[in-house]
């Protein structure tokens, strides 16, 4: 067994950058940098929990709520939490840079287009006396 705990990452640079972020794009940059930096450690923890869930094959036929199932679920939830954070980041970006259309405005435009009679066609020019000019 190691005699020291795993090193704890220093979050100060990320928290400082987060506090300084002024736009959703800057927020996203900080969030993604943290997730990228944490991914190797989190993947290692997930791998350990998955191995612990299978220790001595106790996972075979294990009942819901049993330790092997809880360990497996914990590993899965770590992955889910990271995916949720990435999804939240993407939703923030989309809401700011690609907002959904204003349905009220589109409805008003459609009604206005429907209620307005079509413009009359332009007058057709008839050739003058003596036929068309060349």
Portion in helices: 55-70%
Written as H for each helix and E for each strand, in order along the chain, the element string is HHHH
Rg of Cα set: 31 Å
Which structural category fits the helices and strands? mainly alpha
Model regions low in confidence, pLDDT < 50 over at least 5 residues: none
Mass-distribution shape: elongated
- What integer is the average pLDDT? 87
Can you put this structure into words, describing what you see?
It contains four helices and no strands. It has 134 residues and is mostly helical. Helix 2 packs antiparallel against helix 3 (67-97). The relative contact order is 0.09.
Please specify the SSE layout and strand pairing.
Elements (H helix, E strand, L loop, with lengths): L11 H9 L3 H30 L13 H31 L5 H13 L19
Keyword list:
0% strand; mainly alpha; elongated; 134 residues
Quick synopsis:
The protein is mostly helical. 62% of the residues lie in helices and 0% in strands. The radius of gyration is 31 Å and the shape is elongated.
